[in-house]
Amino acid sequence: MRVRILGSAAGGGFPQWNCRCPTCEAARAGARAVPRTQSSIAVRGGEGPWFLVNASPDAPQQLEALHDEAVDSVRAPPIAGVLLTDAEIDHTAGLLLLRESATPIRVYGEVGVERALTEGYPVLSILERYSGAEWRTLTPGRPTQLEGSSLTVEAFDVGGDAPRYLDGSGVLLGASGLVFRDRAGAGVVTYAPGLARLDDDVLDRFAASDLVLVDGTFWRDDDLARLGIGARSALDMGHLPLSGPGGTLQALARLERPRTVLVHINNTNPILLEDSPERDEVVRAGVEIAYDGLEVGL
Ligand code: MLT
Ligand code: MN
Ligand code: ZN
User: Fold this and answer.
1) Rounded to an integer, what distance in angstroms lies between the CA atom of residue 198 and that of residue 213?
2) Which one of 88, 191, 224 would you pick to mutate in the ligand 1 pocket, going by the greatest count of ligand atoms within 8 A of its CB?
3) Which tens digits make up the pLDDT trace of 11-21?
4) What angle do CA 203, 231, 117 make, to 5 degrees?
5) Among 150, 213, 241, 298, which is disulfide-ready with 183 (CB 3.0 to 4.6 Å)?
6) Closest ligand 1 atom number to CA of residue 237
7) What is the whole-number distance in angstroms between the Cα of residue 39 and the centre of ligand 1?
8) pLDDT tens digits, residue range 256-288?
């Protein structure tokens, strides 16, 4: 299996267009921090094509990295489908930007995500007038074979809230983590860019993986309030903070088997600064910080 980090920042990217926080300013200055595009990875089995996992607003540029030199047809999509962990705008807006597809875009996700993208923010309905979309429902706990690939994917619940565009609709929708296994190769990969619960079920899944790509959105629960740019806490937004007791970092540090890499990193997170004490703490915990273009073979 091959996994490539296409975008390692959270929604808004790094730097974010309207943000003058210290980390965004460092990225703009080209010093102490490397810019990053929005949250997305690509996965490919030992047999079969690449799949996009989350379709960010940066998808068209991100997909450039996946073209295969050996393909010589004029219209050749570099991916065979899109998998979604949730229905957030930063993970789904890219679907609209794939509308040039000559064939319906195959999209895998939980049934609640399909509903959100039909009723709340009707990306799937809009696509019907363009490429069309072929929905494939993922049922939590049940591995699904990806068509044309040696990969299976299994969704599991990671908690969290429905996207804000569903506020007031009464729809309850959390995020999923995805576990990838390859019939044509070794290795278990778990991807959870949003993580609101870290109970035994989630930890057991991480412990049984070879590679864990996990929510590195916020450092503290009150990162945004400290900067004076928002009242919502990390947990309000469906993300466990990294630091402190009960934070993700302590739990990740205890895992023995997997390589652990932080993804979906918010532009305000001090771990993005290459000389920050927070980044040192992550490194000392044996955890890596994703960057765009990081590729892992298993
Ligand atoms: C999230 O990751 O929590 C969402 O993308 C936040 C948002 O876009 O509102
Ligand atoms: Mn997000
Ligand atoms: Zn910022």
Assistant:
1) 14
2) 88
3) 999 999 999 99
4) 65
5) 150
6) 3
7) 10
8) 999 999 999 999 999 999 999 999 999 999 999
